[in-house]
Amino acid sequence: MSLYFLDSSALVKRYVAETGSAWIQALAEPTAGHTLFIARITWIEVLSALARRQREAGAPPQDISSTISQFRYDLDTQYQVIELGQALVELAGELALRHPLRTYDAVQLAAACRVQSGLVPAGAPALTFVSADVRLLAVTQTEGLPTGNPNDHP
Which pTM value belongs to this model? Predict the structure, then answer.
């Protein structure tokens, strides 16, 4: 069993076939026994990506609707969702001041750092931050978290 934090660029690969989808789907397979963490804002970012896919790539509305239903089910049953509170926002602001991060990337990283800081005292294994954003992964590594890029798993 491993612990993973999936940002939106990684998680969307579970629902949309692209490079790295098979790896993300394997991580997310319930029988694999992994614990998957996501930030609450991931809901918004994944829906935005799906809507963009419908607008720009012509994905059928019924396919998008079905994908959203599956994502909602997984959100409610499989992911450990990290809520956006004042402490998390403060940490995201600190990260944005230290690193060249976009707003939601700072929130995603702050959520992962918050999870990791809560796991270390319990002696749990390190949390792996998974993203398809190379720049975000580089910043994540400077913050001391192990990383994984689904695009490295075609």
Answer: 0.94
Q: Match 């959100």 to its residue by tokens.
A: 75
User: Which residues are CB-contacts of 129 (< 8 A; sequence separation ≥ 6)?
Assistant: 4, 5, 7, 109, 112, 137, 140, 145, 146, 147, 148
Task: Please report the pLDDT score of residue 121 as a whole number.
Answer: 61
CATH 1.10.10.60 fits 3-152, yes or no: no
Q: What is the mean pLDDT of the chain?
A: 94
Residue type present at position 77: T
pLDDT category at 120 given cuts 50, 70, 90 is low
The residue extents of the domains of the chain are 3-152
What was the pLDDT predicted at 91?
98
Contact 125, 116 (CB under 8 A): no
